[in-house]
Sequence to fold (174 residues):
Amino acid sequence: MCGPCNDLAQQVRPPMTASRDGEGGFSLVEASVVISVMVIGVLGLLSAMVSAQMLSRTTREMDEASMALVEAVEVFRSDCSDDFDGAVDAVISGGALFPPGPGRNTRLWRTVVSDETAISPPIDLNGDGDLLDTAVAVADADAAVVVFKITWRGARGAREVEYTVVVSRPGGTP
Fold:
């Protein structure tokens, strides 16, 4: 090759020598630290998004369960206004109902409380003046205390919501 061509190449392109003064760019350790910090930040954001989605689903399930309970209570109150004894007897003889609900295996349980001592605050169910009767018959009751409980398997495992309602016999005084 010609001598002047080599001189021209050296003038256009600086020689490729490693810089020893620490100003030549990022080292592998620095790049690894930056990448690690960014990965931790992105994982934190993803975790927050997943938590928000689970909370949203749990809230939706609770709303659906509450709506199913309110509907069951309204039906029970309506039945009581038509036939108090029949509505209460239907609860006593019936098992679990399977309403459309918030998750898998949704069940609605209804239980009539006939023990005045088990209610807080106490209610005189049969109107005899004392609050110590432990087994009030439906025919003798002026009021019925019914516990509605809905259970389901949802986003965060087994869940339940409970609601207690007191319904007076038409013309009765609880």
